[in-house]
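HOLO CASE FILE
Compound: pyridoxal-5'-phosphate
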Amino acid sequence: MQNIYFDNAATTPIHPEVIEVISTVMANNFGNPSSIHSSGRKAKGVIEESRVTMAKYMGCSPSELYFTSCGTESNNIALRKAADCLGIKHFISTPIEHHSVLSTLKDIVKQNPDIELHLLEVDEKGNYALEQLEQLLQKHSNVMVSIMHVNNELGNLSDLNSIGALCSSNDALFHTDAVQTVGYFNFDLSNIDMLSASAHKFGGPKGIGILYMKKGTQLDALITGGGQERGLRAGTENVPYIAGMAKAMALCYDHLIEKSAHIKSIKSYFQDSIRTKLPQIKFNGDVENSHYTVLSVRVPVKEGADMFLFNLDLKGISASGGSACNSGASKGSHVMEAIGNSGDCVNLRFSFGINNTRDEVDYCLQSLKELMDS
Ligand code: PLP
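Model generated. Tokens follow.
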């Protein structure tokens, strides 16, 4: 039985060296980092060393990084606390953000009738116009923009430098959900005020994340009850996972060129194979401007997405659904709905990682063909 994992945008396998670091820290650094005795200080040392390591790779100061429990929490802190503490009156975002941004923004405006949410229009590829963003920025003050770096369903890449420059020149704050891209790209944070990331998307463990916040930005805690993370995030720190996240990030960035080249070659082989062997399968999103790990496709079959994914799984292939099609999927995707993808088809997301091979792509294409013919 094959075991092919094409779902790296959902989560990535934990690198063995990361598991080793986590186990070692768990065994040897059990102290509470808030304790003042040597065991506590040792654990605190692990946290601060990890922060320094990650700051080096992110191109920021260690004091600008805060540890959270996940990307969802980082997004919640950034948006909810910007509304509470920074006098934000207008949020500008897109209708294709991850739910941890979109639902949070909708909740903020529901609870604060004086705050407005503006969602940029997206076209059938999921692209939005920077001109519309610029017009909104010029029209309103006390604005925070939250736009994701890479769309987790389509793979579309946003131009953070252009958005950041627009925000900066219009005195707006800029938050980006970079959960799909930290570990895969180098960042220029000069015009980014806040950025969210999550370890399990780049070879680290689940349940640990980062919020980058530019020096000088002052927010209250979302989770209260302790002074950890300089008062921004109460709760005893997950020392082993923080150390594991730092190791995972180091492994990504120390080998970024080789790793990205390999994943790009797998994605383009998959894409080319579909074009030549299964041209009835179409691509979703802006494939010419998309993340090198993600490929979203539309398969012209009438059975539901869940059933199609189940049958793929029976062939040993893990991929993701995401569908607003007439597919009988238990719940439609707001992203597919926003781009008007509601045909008689199944949407599948294949997302690639360092362990994937061309043989796996060949087997997957053969399996897709068999399922479409059956
Ligand atoms: N943002 C994006 C773009 C994601 O893809 C995800 C996870 O799928 C999240 C946020 C949530 O991250 P976490 O699983 O760490 O809460």
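CASE NOTES: The domain at 16-254 is CATH 3.40.640.10 (Aspartate Aminotransferase; domain 2). Residues 70-72, 98, 100, 148, 152, 177, 179-180, 198, 209 surround pyridoxal-5'-phosphate (CB under 6 Å).
CLOSED: yes
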